Structure to design on (312 residues):
């Protein structure tokens, strides 16, 4: 899918997630995971055994999934459901999984602060096993990996191929972009770009224009760290980074041109409509941040350095 098709699919996906509850949501999740993972095993209830604390199991990476998709989200009900599934899994599936993934359908993104406490308590309960949360953002990132035919099948509608204009690309970044635009006039740039990033710039053979934009933006990328340090949503930063990696890998399948890759990432952040210079600057800072984290573009091999002038 191209950029505009992906935006259309995202809007439909968002609506679908809002409308799916209970068993229909669980079936959607099974279809999504099965399309992407040959080793995914959906689990149905059976007599007195029930589902033994699992709705689905990824065999290779030993992840057990439990779905929770009520029509309204309540903290006490969430706590009860989580501990019920987790206790059953520990009692009946001990030694069969390394990660317990709780999958939920809240389309608002993020989790309630009290739910984050519940998850932290559950994590402490089962160490060294891991608790993972699979919400809207994670589900969308998995959906992005589908081919168009499979995506249309899951959405239940065709994805149009006509060119459209959208004003925001990655909607989950909108609060960050707004804060960056507000900080532009007062932000103090860092003194210099770390050498490792200079080497990465050289290794990816960025054009002069992209290089100039990136170097300027890298001096303000600390603002993105400040933003994520100040929010309480569980794993938000890592989820956004994962989305950038998935999208960049898909861009690389269509082009190796550094300028086109940069433009694709920019559209991913702000959309393909005309935007203000301040918005373009904010997008560059976000891309620079994930460039610095090595989520986008290639990392030079260990020991690599640019050739010096005069070398053959």
């Amino acid at each position: 899918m191209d950029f505009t098709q992906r935006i259309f699919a995202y809007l439909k996906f968002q609506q679908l997630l809002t409308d799916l509850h209970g068993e229909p949501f669980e079936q959607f999740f099974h279809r999504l995971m099965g399309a992407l993972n040959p080793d995914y095993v959906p689990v149905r209830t059976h007599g007195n055994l029930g589902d033994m604390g699992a709705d689905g199991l990824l065999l290779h990476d030993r992840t057990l999934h439990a779905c929770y998709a009520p029509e309204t989200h309540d903290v006490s009900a969430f706590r009860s459901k989580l501990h019920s599934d987790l206790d059953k899994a520990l009692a009946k599936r001990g030694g069969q999984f390394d990660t317990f993934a709780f999958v939920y359908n809240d389309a608002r993104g993020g989790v309630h602060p009290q739910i984050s406490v519940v998850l932290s308590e559950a994590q402490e309960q089962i160490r060294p096993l891991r608790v993972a949360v699979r919400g809207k953002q994670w589900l969308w990132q998995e959906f992005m990996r589908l081919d168009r035919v499979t995506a249309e099948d899951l959405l239940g509608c065709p994805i149009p191929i006509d060119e459209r204009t959208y004003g925001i690309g990655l909607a989950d970044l909108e609060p960050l972009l707004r804060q960056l635009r507000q900080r532009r006039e007062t932000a103090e740039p860092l003194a210099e770009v770390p050498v490792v990033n200079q080497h990465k710039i050289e290794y990816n053979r960025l054009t002069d224009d992209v290089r100039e934009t990136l170097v300027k933006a890298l001096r303000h990328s600390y603002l993105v760290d400040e933003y994520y340090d100040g929010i309480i949503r569980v794993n938000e930063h890592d989820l956004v980074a994962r989305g950038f990696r998935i999208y960049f890998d898909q861009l690389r399948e269509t082009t190796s041109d550094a300028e086109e890759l940069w433009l694709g990432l920019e559209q991913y952040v702000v959309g393909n409509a005309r935007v203000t210079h301040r918005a373009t600057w904010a997008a560059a800072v976000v891309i620079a941040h994930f460039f610095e984290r090595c989520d986008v573009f290639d990392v030079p091999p260990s020991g690599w350095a640019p050739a010096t002038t005069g070398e053959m």
